[in-house]
Automatic annotation (TrEMBL):
Gene3D superfamilies: Cell division protein FtsQ/DivIB, membrane protein fhac. GO terms for cellular component: cell division site; plasma membrane. Belongs to the FtsQ/DivIB family. FtsQ subfamily. The chain crosses the membrane at residues 31-50. This is Cell division protein FtsQ.
Amino acid sequence: MAFGKSKNRRHQDVAQKKAAMAGAVRAHGPGLLKAIVLTGLTCALLWGGIELRRWALTSPFFLLKETSFSGLHRAHPGELLKLSGLTVGQNLWTLDVDSLERAMATHPWVRDVAVRRHFPASVSVEVSEHAPVALVVLNDLYLLNEEGKPFKRLQPEDGLDLPLVTGVDREAYLADEAKAHESLLEALAMVAAYTSARPGKSERLSEVRVADDGLVLVLSDGTQVRMGEGAMEEKLQRLARVREGLKGKGLSAEVIHLDNRARPGWVAVKISSPVSERNGTSAQ
């Protein structure tokens, strides 16, 4: 009898274990299956990503075939390509756009540059160049842009005829760049204001001299105009009236003073000597 009871107990234990396992499967089976499926999908995605990356980096489909440029006037495409090392046959996915932009921006005429990839096989380069508005003497001659930045040493092939800014030497510029930049901006403002009046050929602005007591203009006919400081628009209008009056009388000025601080409305003019007097001869 004892033997029969032990056998029944074993059957009961087995049945209970089976029931417990069935319950666990019912309770946790869906979650476990989901975890297995997600793990499989993750592995598949990782493998697929690796293979896709390998294909993208090696496929001839993404090799550079064409580079287009816009905004170029002084710089040349070949120069920018040489600086950047960008060549046909490079993989677009491996291009470091930031590095390409920094390299091209070292060209003296380039102010800003934006490089864009156009998949599958082309690159566009949009360039904004410096616009020279004057020359400045800093030991050598440099081109000045409209922001008062000397951006390039003047070369004979540049072929530019621009007003000259003097009175700010290289040492002063290096010692106090902020102060020198302020003086350059003041000179450029004068250049812009004067040229906007569209002067005649003989009245074109040749030089703007930065002096301790203000700006001095030198016109293409040799006339010096001492502007002093402040009220530049009014002084330019006064200068136009004075030159028109002199022209009507057949006279020309050697120096025109518009820098009287005590009496800002006054104008003093030193009349040029006739050619015969300057050469020490008598008029016929």
